[in-house]
Amino acid sequence: LPRVALKHSLLSSLPSNTAFIFCFCFPGKNKPFPLGVKIADCDEPPCVVVKGTIAVMEVHFLGNNNNIRSITATTTAKVLGMNLPYALPEEVSNVCQNLLYGAMCPIDKDEDVTYQFNFYIDPTFPEITADVTVTLNDALGEAISCFVVSCKIRKGATGDVHLLDWSSPI
């Protein structure tokens, strides 16, 4: 997939070591791509994300119709060639509740808004690289914006680990 790296002055709340990195969704399926995606602590793909933490993304997109009152984020992860759905909690999937810079729903066609997407990296996820697809849908299920980001899932730092040596007698 072709990669896009963009910068936009409106996406300024994330740290400076944050990149705009994403791929377009499903070439040929006419899904609109965002103006930009900013991912905290990621300079280039794949973005390293740590299990048990939240990956913070800002998705800058345009409304595709007038009077959009409801927008829902959905995610899938492509793992070992399979696209697996990943359910998001309501407080994350409700895009209207997570718009930044004073924006609110309803939004209109060509209205420029930014969604803060807080993606929880479940501690049970395997340590692999997965292509995560994020789609923002209106109430009718029509895609408003869609992107794919490659994430390398890693274990976080842990405290001191003491292993028992069962091979030597006490």
List the helices and strands and how they pair.
Layout (H helix, E strand, L loop, with lengths): L2 E2 L14 E2 L1 E3 L11 E4 L7 E4 L3 E9 L8 E9 L2 E5 L3 H4 L18 E9 L8 E10 L4 E12 L16
Parallel strand pairs: 5-11
Antiparallel strand pairs: 1-3, 2-4, 3-11, 4-6, 6-9, 7-8, 7-10, 10-11
Write up what this structure looks like.
- By secondary structure, the chain is mainly beta.
- The chain is built from 1 helix and 11 strands, in the order ββββββββαβββ.
- The protein is globular and about 45 Å long.
Q: What order do the SSEs take from the amino end to the carboxyl end, as H and E?
A: EEEEEEEEHEEE
By secondary-structure content and strand pairing, the structural class works out as mainly beta
Distance between the termini: 57 Å
Sheet with most strands? 7 strands, mixed
Count of DSSP E strands? 11
**Are there runs of 5+ residues with pLDDT below 50, and where?**
1-20, 159-166
Radius of gyration: 18 Å
- The averaged pLDDT comes out at 80
Number of helical elements: 1
Report the portion of residues in β strands. Answer: 35-45%
- Net shape: globular
Helix content: under 10%
